[in-house]
Design a protein that fits this description.
The protein is α/β, with parallel strands linked by helices. The chain contains 11 helices and 8 strands.
Amino acid sequence: MDTVLPSGSAEEIAQRAENSIRARFHSRLFSRFAQAVVKYGLIRPNDKIAVCISGGKDSFLMAKLFQEIKRHDKFPFELVFLVMDPGYSAENRAAIERNAALLKIPVTIFETDIFANVFAIEKSPCYLCARMRRGHLYRRAQELGCNKIALGHHYDDVIETILMGMLYGAQVQTMMPKVKSANFAGMELIRPMYFVRERDIEAWRDANGLRFLQCACKFTEMCGLEGCMGSKRKKVKGLIRTLEAEDPVIAQNIFKSVENVNLATILAYKDKSGVKHFFTEDYDV
């Protein structure tokens, strides 16, 4: 693992990171973060939000953006910076703690045995791991008095999910900016990085000389720092980049496609109850 640290004291490193959000990256990061918060109503007065930090660049930036929006003090809400250790190696656990200290993020860490439970599972271990992680985060956040958990999924995650659903899942769906929990009463999941591009997150990271883990996953943990990911998502990511290089509006069009669904031209769809309806039902009406 590369342990090269940015130069300066923790105070100086955090200050540089914050200043870059307020100046150089304001329009690309903070403005888009605030846009999603306002458009989708992600933060309400008196919310207590568990900002979930996995150790990667996305969730650490999300934590800094939450600190920045809290600094504006438009209305009262509380933040808890929550780190779940699902069974990290000592090296990766230390890397998360080090980055939190460098960026002046006061994290609350709790431990689970998720990696030990799913690592030997052959069928869909990533899906099971993600569901278990989500459940543990909801439960711990609720114990801490939170009513929301915030995850660091960004714009590129959204458009990749849309294409992956079509190409590999035979369905049209997206990653929603907010979702009410079905299993934890009164809890909600929010994604305030919804409009933030991954390339801008990477630019902020690199401009500040920061290094983060890839994600909270035993399989990618074996890759150490950033550099590996699931093959299907990697293929879709590459496809989008190739198309976007030829036509810059491709990414925007993929995103807009799930805002502009025309039911009059859809063969079938599922309603909110999960009931499937075909166009032939009212074709002759």
